[in-house]
Amino acid sequence: MNKGVLFVLSGPSGVGKGTVKAKLFEEFEKCLVFSVSATTRKPREGEVDGREYFFIDRDSFERKIREDAFLEHAEFAGNLYGTPREAVNAQLLAGRDVLLEIEVQGALQVMQSMPDCVSLFILPPSFEVLEQRLRGRGTESDEVIERRLEQARRELPMADRYMYQLVNDTISGTYEKLREIYLKHSKVVHQVYGI
Ligand code: 5GP
Fold it and tell me: What is the tens place of the pLDDT at every residue in 132-151?
């Protein structure tokens, strides 16, 4: 049995990462798993503890940092986010690919500590398009949107540190590229799906 491969996906909020990622999980559900992160952010409406995130308080998060329980962790827009190390390793050893959807500082830590990972950055066609999409989503207050745009300004120049850069012009086009990259690097998908 081959080991799974670790995929790291980043891109600014509102760029469409969530949509293409969901399609990939749907198509390859037998061999690709999502790593559920821990965060100190409050759940949004509809989010379920243990599904989108493990929602924990700052004290618990800091204790986990001290216990070295995170593969990476970072602060983003005032909240802490971290990837549980054991869960990821267990999945990879069991022959499942793991996809992390994380922000740039965390992704750079993973590229250092797990140099075999495959890293992808999704870019918006332009900053204006990103702003429109973020405002149109209607899930966040103006203040939160401003913070996320500010964050995007800092993150976009980091795209070239990733192995792949995908410009999200259309969801279907971006998905095709993401799928192709997944099929190219996964060592288990061909066995599992016979493709
Ligand atoms: P949101 O609050 O919108 O769910 O996520 C905010 C940002 O945190 C997104 O860029 C998301 O990819 C990132 N993120 C989610 N989980 C993690 C994690 O475990 N580690 C890091 N470094 N970033 C994360």
Answer: 988 887 778 888 889 889 98
Q: Is 76 in the pocket of ligand 1 (CB under 6 A)?
A: yes
Work out the pLDDT band at 1, boundaries 50, 70, 90.
confident
Cα 21 to middle of ligand 1, angstroms: 14
Q: Print the SS3 string covering the chain.
A: CCCCCEEEEECCCCCCHHHHHHHHHHHCCCCEEECCEEECCCCCCCCCECCCEEECCHHHHHHHHHCCCEEEEEEECCEEEEEEHHHHHHHHHCCCEEEEECCHHHHHHHHHHCCCCEEEEEECCCHHHHHHHHHHHCCCCHHHHHHHHHHHHHHHHHHHHCCEEEECCCHHHHHHHHHHHHHHHCCCHHHHHCC
Residue 10 lies in a domain: yes
Domain count, the chain: 1
Protein residue with its CA nearest to atom 13 in ligand 1: 102
User: Is the pTM here over 0.85, yes or no?
Assistant: yes
Residue nearest atom 7 in ligand 1 by C-alpha distance: 103
- The CATH number of residue 181's host domain is 3.40.50.300
Q: Is any ligand 1 atom within 6 A of the Cβ of residue 101?
A: yes
**Residue numbers of the domain that contains 142:** 6-193
Is 1 part of a structural domain of the chain?
no
> 74 CB under 6 A from ligand 1?
yes
Residue range 113-122, pLDDT digits in tens: 999 999 999 9
Q: Is 109 in the pocket of ligand 1 (CB under 6 A)?
A: no
Q: Residue 106 falls within a domain, yes or no?
A: yes
On average, the pLDDT of the chain sits at: 95
Residue 172, pLDDT score: 96
